[in-house]
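Preliminary data (for renewal application), pyridoxal-5'-phosphate complex.
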Amino acid sequence: MSEPAKASSGTREPRDHSHHSVDGRALSNHSAASDGHTFTPSRALDDHHAHSHHSDTVGGNGHTHSGLPFDGRIHTYIPDMDEDRIYMDYNATTPLEPQVIQAVTEALHEAWGNPSSTYTPGVKAKKIITQARENVARMVGGKADDIIFTSGGTEANNLVFRSALEAYRESCRAAERRGESHHHDNGSTSAWPLPHILVSNVEHDSVRLTTEHLLKDATADVTSVAVSKVTGRVEVEDVLAAVRSSTCLISIMMANNETGVLMPIRELCQRIRFVNRQRQHRILLHTDAAQAIGKVRVDALDLGVDYLTIVGHKFYAPRIGALYVNGPGTTTPLYPCCLEGDRRGASDQALRTHP
Ligand SMILES: Cc1ncc(COP(=O)(O)O)c(C=O)c1O
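Predicted structure:
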């Protein structure tokens, strides 16, 4: 999957005021170990040299650990940046591609209408939204109806947590109506425990801080599974060992934003699908694919996830995002809200990025 950082001429191209795309693989490196707390790129290199193991990775934080220059195509001109500096922090955010700026500008001119209205500007806005939804769905291997536009990855991730918690509560209420009580891990039956969520200890703050809030408010129990100190990967067996009868969600990122390490999402989904057959409460699976899209193939159906987070500003779009939900409200629970087809607390939007 990963390729070593490619050597290039390293010479700067003349300043041409245009954006050149970055091949994510050109930024790849073989970063290896992480303790999940103090991981730094230079540590990764040291640890990689110390161990023969390595994981699949996508480009880390835009650094070459070896100091090798990047592929010659990446000399993006960023206004306001020092002439002698090259912007490389593509895992934080990317500049907009000229085609994106053009598409947004056209939409600002032509699709300013309310997409719910029947007159021309509204119809145009609706058409653009529909097309965009289809494009995003195709990108991640889903159907247009599976895509919910959001203000970014943080909102998408929060929508998942909220939905999984509500689905668990609903499952408890349904079991009560059937006269069932909760089957605890120790075999006893009694009151319903708090919903339990599993994450890795290297998740992005939008997940980590959300779980901290849930814990603090006593809304959910959370287990943070440590990634391997050798590979930087969360191990499937460690996740499975942490599953409880009250587990309602496993949320593990697809690629880490600091190390670029790819997590075994497909294998995890396969195992959980089997576990789910024998459970009172279904475990939902979410992956935050913010750092994977545009760098490696991302196919939600092939992975087998229920939810997948998409963050546009990691691949040349404005600072917006989307959530893939496999059959929202039917196959997979989704609990908001009011609009975006009753799926999110916001109205349809062709242009708005932050409601
Ligand atoms: C892995 C990951 N998830 C989520 C986010 C948050 O996305 P946003 O800034 O659009 O809320 C980021 C962005 O930094 C990220 O790297």
